[in-house]
Amino acid sequence: MKRLLINLFFSFCVLLVMSCDYPQNEAMSNEKQDVVKVETDEIVDCDWCDGNGYSIHKCNYCNGMGALYGTVSRTERGPCSYCNGNRKLICSTCSGSGRIRCQYCGGQRKRCTNCNGSGFTVIGTWNDVTYIKCPYCEGSGYEVCLICDNVGFLPCSTCSGTGWMNCPKCYGSGKGELQTRDSVYYAECQVCNGTGEVSLECEKCNGTGKIKKSELD
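Request: output the structure for the sequence above.
Response:
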Protein backbone atom coordinates (compact mmCIF):
# COMPACT_ATOMS: atom_id res chain seq x y z
CA MET A 1 0.00 0.00 0.00
CA LYS A 2 2.80 2.35 0.77
CA ARG A 3 4.53 1.50 -2.51
CA LEU A 4 1.33 2.20 -4.41
CA LEU A 5 0.99 5.59 -2.84
CA ILE A 6 4.57 6.39 -3.71
CA ASN A 7 4.04 5.45 -7.37
CA LEU A 8 0.90 7.51 -7.60
CA PHE A 9 2.65 10.49 -6.12
CA PHE A 10 5.55 10.11 -8.51
CA SER A 11 3.22 9.87 -11.52
CA PHE A 12 1.38 12.96 -10.36
CA CYS A 13 4.64 14.90 -10.12
CA VAL A 14 5.67 13.83 -13.61
CA LEU A 15 2.36 14.94 -15.04
CA LEU A 16 2.62 18.23 -13.22
CA VAL A 17 6.09 18.88 -14.58
CA MET A 18 5.03 18.00 -18.12
CA SER A 19 2.01 20.27 -17.86
CA CYS A 20 4.26 23.12 -16.81
CA ASP A 21 6.81 22.60 -19.65
CA TYR A 22 4.24 22.31 -22.54
CA PRO A 23 3.55 26.04 -22.97
CA GLN A 24 7.28 26.71 -23.00
CA ASN A 25 7.88 24.03 -25.63
CA GLU A 26 4.96 25.37 -27.67
CA ALA A 27 6.39 28.88 -27.48
CA MET A 28 9.78 27.62 -28.63
CA SER A 29 8.17 25.77 -31.52
CA ASN A 30 6.28 28.89 -32.58
CA GLU A 31 9.49 30.90 -32.36
CA LYS A 32 11.21 28.45 -34.69
CA GLN A 33 8.35 28.70 -37.14
CA ASP A 34 8.59 32.49 -37.03
CA VAL A 35 12.30 32.34 -37.75
CA VAL A 36 11.76 30.03 -40.71
CA LYS A 37 9.02 32.29 -41.97
CA VAL A 38 11.31 35.33 -41.85
CA GLU A 39 13.95 33.44 -43.81
CA THR A 40 11.35 32.42 -46.40
CA ASP A 41 10.04 35.96 -46.95
CA GLU A 42 13.48 37.54 -47.29
CA ILE A 43 13.79 39.47 -50.58
CA VAL A 44 16.95 38.90 -52.61
CA ASP A 45 18.20 39.60 -56.13
CA CYS A 46 16.83 37.33 -58.80
CA ASP A 47 19.41 34.70 -59.72
CA TRP A 48 18.19 34.57 -63.34
CA CYS A 49 18.74 38.23 -64.19
CA ASP A 50 21.16 39.22 -61.40
CA GLY A 51 18.65 41.75 -60.15
CA ASN A 52 18.42 43.65 -63.46
CA GLY A 53 14.83 42.69 -64.14
CA TYR A 54 15.61 41.70 -67.70
CA SER A 55 17.74 39.15 -69.49
CA ILE A 56 19.67 39.24 -72.76
CA HIS A 57 18.54 36.93 -75.55
CA LYS A 58 19.51 36.40 -79.14
CA CYS A 59 17.28 38.30 -81.53
CA ASN A 60 15.09 35.75 -83.27
CA TYR A 61 14.10 38.17 -86.03
CA CYS A 62 17.62 38.46 -87.46
CA ASN A 63 18.95 35.27 -85.85
CA GLY A 64 21.48 37.28 -83.87
CA MET A 65 23.16 38.74 -86.97
CA GLY A 66 21.96 42.29 -86.39
CA ALA A 67 21.05 42.68 -90.05
CA LEU A 68 18.70 41.27 -92.65
CA TYR A 69 19.97 39.95 -95.95
CA GLY A 70 18.09 38.83 -99.01
CA THR A 71 17.84 38.90 -102.77
CA VAL A 72 15.35 40.75 -104.93
CA SER A 73 14.71 39.96 -108.58
CA ARG A 74 14.30 43.04 -110.73
CA THR A 75 13.40 43.28 -114.38
CA GLU A 76 14.96 46.27 -116.08
CA ARG A 77 16.43 47.26 -119.40
CA GLY A 78 20.13 46.71 -119.76
CA PRO A 79 22.50 49.01 -121.67
CA CYS A 80 22.19 49.23 -125.42
CA SER A 81 24.52 46.73 -127.06
CA TYR A 82 25.16 49.05 -130.02
CA CYS A 83 26.26 52.20 -128.15
CA ASN A 84 27.09 50.44 -124.84
CA GLY A 85 24.64 52.71 -123.05
CA ASN A 86 26.41 55.93 -124.12
CA ARG A 87 23.29 57.02 -126.08
CA LYS A 88 25.38 58.82 -128.71
CA LEU A 89 27.86 57.81 -131.40
CA ILE A 90 30.44 59.71 -133.41
CA CYS A 91 28.76 61.14 -136.45
CA SER A 92 29.47 58.91 -139.44
CA THR A 93 28.99 61.76 -141.91
CA CYS A 94 31.57 64.22 -140.58
CA SER A 95 33.63 61.73 -138.46
CA GLY A 96 32.99 63.85 -135.37
CA SER A 97 34.34 67.12 -136.79
CA GLY A 98 30.89 68.70 -137.00
CA ARG A 99 31.49 70.11 -140.49
CA ILE A 100 31.69 69.01 -144.10
CA ARG A 101 33.33 70.52 -147.15
CA CYS A 102 31.33 73.00 -149.14
CA GLN A 103 29.82 71.19 -152.11
CA TYR A 104 30.00 74.35 -154.25
CA CYS A 105 33.63 75.35 -153.84
CA GLY A 106 34.95 72.06 -152.50
CA GLY A 107 36.57 73.84 -149.59
CA GLN A 108 39.10 75.54 -151.86
CA ARG A 109 39.16 79.23 -152.71
CA LYS A 110 39.03 79.96 -156.43
CA ARG A 111 40.85 82.82 -158.09
CA CYS A 112 38.68 85.58 -159.37
CA THR A 113 38.35 85.22 -163.13
CA ASN A 114 37.75 88.95 -163.54
CA CYS A 115 40.99 90.18 -161.95
CA ASN A 116 42.92 86.90 -162.23
CA GLY A 117 43.46 86.96 -158.49
CA SER A 118 45.05 90.43 -158.35
CA GLY A 119 42.11 92.04 -156.66
CA PHE A 120 42.25 95.04 -159.02
CA THR A 121 40.92 95.73 -162.42
CA VAL A 122 42.11 98.25 -165.03
CA ILE A 123 39.88 100.83 -166.66
CA GLY A 124 40.69 103.55 -169.17
CA THR A 125 42.97 103.72 -172.19
CA TRP A 126 46.55 102.62 -172.59
CA ASN A 127 47.84 106.07 -171.76
CA ASP A 128 45.29 106.76 -169.03
CA VAL A 129 45.19 103.67 -166.81
CA THR A 130 43.25 103.57 -163.55
CA TYR A 131 43.31 100.66 -161.12
CA ILE A 132 40.17 100.05 -159.10
CA LYS A 133 39.08 97.35 -156.72
CA CYS A 134 37.69 94.37 -158.52
CA PRO A 135 33.91 94.58 -158.18
CA TYR A 136 33.54 90.80 -158.42
CA CYS A 137 35.87 89.73 -155.60
CA GLU A 138 35.85 93.06 -153.73
CA GLY A 139 39.61 93.17 -153.88
CA SER A 140 40.24 89.77 -152.29
CA GLY A 141 41.37 88.12 -155.51
CA TYR A 142 39.10 85.16 -154.90
CA GLU A 143 35.60 84.44 -155.91
CA VAL A 144 33.06 84.71 -153.14
CA CYS A 145 31.32 81.35 -152.49
CA LEU A 146 27.66 82.02 -152.17
CA ILE A 147 27.20 78.83 -150.10
CA CYS A 148 29.98 78.90 -147.45
CA ASP A 149 31.05 82.57 -147.77
CA ASN A 150 34.62 81.42 -148.52
CA VAL A 151 34.88 79.46 -145.28
CA GLY A 152 35.18 76.23 -147.22
CA PHE A 153 33.11 74.19 -144.81
CA LEU A 154 29.47 73.89 -143.82
CA PRO A 155 27.91 72.59 -140.58
CA CYS A 156 27.15 68.88 -140.79
CA SER A 157 23.47 68.39 -141.39
CA THR A 158 23.45 64.93 -139.80
CA CYS A 159 24.70 65.97 -136.35
CA SER A 160 23.85 69.71 -136.61
CA GLY A 161 27.52 70.54 -136.17
CA THR A 162 27.92 68.75 -132.79
CA GLY A 163 29.95 65.80 -134.07
CA TRP A 164 27.64 63.33 -132.30
CA MET A 165 24.48 61.60 -133.38
CA ASN A 166 21.87 59.60 -131.50
CA CYS A 167 22.29 55.85 -131.47
CA PRO A 168 20.18 54.45 -134.32
CA LYS A 169 19.29 51.34 -132.29
CA CYS A 170 18.12 52.82 -128.97
CA TYR A 171 17.33 56.29 -130.41
CA GLY A 172 19.45 58.00 -127.77
CA SER A 173 17.90 56.33 -124.72
CA GLY A 174 20.90 54.12 -123.93
CA LYS A 175 18.54 51.27 -122.96
CA GLY A 176 18.62 47.81 -124.44
CA GLU A 177 16.55 44.68 -124.01
CA LEU A 178 14.77 43.67 -120.80
CA GLN A 179 16.94 41.73 -118.35
CA THR A 180 16.17 40.06 -115.01
CA ARG A 181 18.78 40.62 -112.32
CA ASP A 182 19.04 39.45 -108.72
CA SER A 183 20.28 42.12 -106.34
CA VAL A 184 21.33 41.56 -102.72
CA TYR A 185 19.90 43.93 -100.15
CA TYR A 186 21.16 44.66 -96.64
CA ALA A 187 19.14 46.31 -93.90
CA GLU A 188 19.80 46.83 -90.21
CA CYS A 189 17.47 44.86 -87.97
CA GLN A 190 14.90 47.23 -86.52
CA VAL A 191 14.08 44.89 -83.63
CA CYS A 192 17.54 44.79 -82.05
CA ASN A 193 18.90 47.98 -83.73
CA GLY A 194 21.73 46.02 -85.28
CA THR A 195 23.07 44.54 -82.02
CA GLY A 196 21.78 41.00 -82.55
CA GLU A 197 20.50 40.92 -78.96
CA VAL A 198 17.26 41.92 -77.26
CA SER A 199 16.43 42.58 -73.62
CA LEU A 200 13.36 40.73 -72.39
CA GLU A 201 11.58 40.94 -69.07
CA CYS A 202 12.79 38.24 -66.70
CA GLU A 203 10.18 35.53 -66.47
CA LYS A 204 11.15 34.56 -62.94
CA CYS A 205 10.90 37.95 -61.23
CA ASN A 206 8.52 39.54 -63.78
CA GLY A 207 10.93 42.39 -64.37
CA THR A 208 11.25 43.43 -60.70
CA GLY A 209 14.73 42.00 -60.22
CA LYS A 210 13.71 40.71 -56.76
CA ILE A 211 12.43 37.35 -55.57
CA LYS A 212 11.88 35.61 -52.25
CA LYS A 213 14.81 33.72 -50.90
CA SER A 214 12.79 30.51 -50.84
CA GLU A 215 12.36 30.79 -54.64
CA LEU A 216 16.08 30.49 -55.28
CA ASP A 217 16.91 27.49 -57.42
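The helical segments are 2-40.
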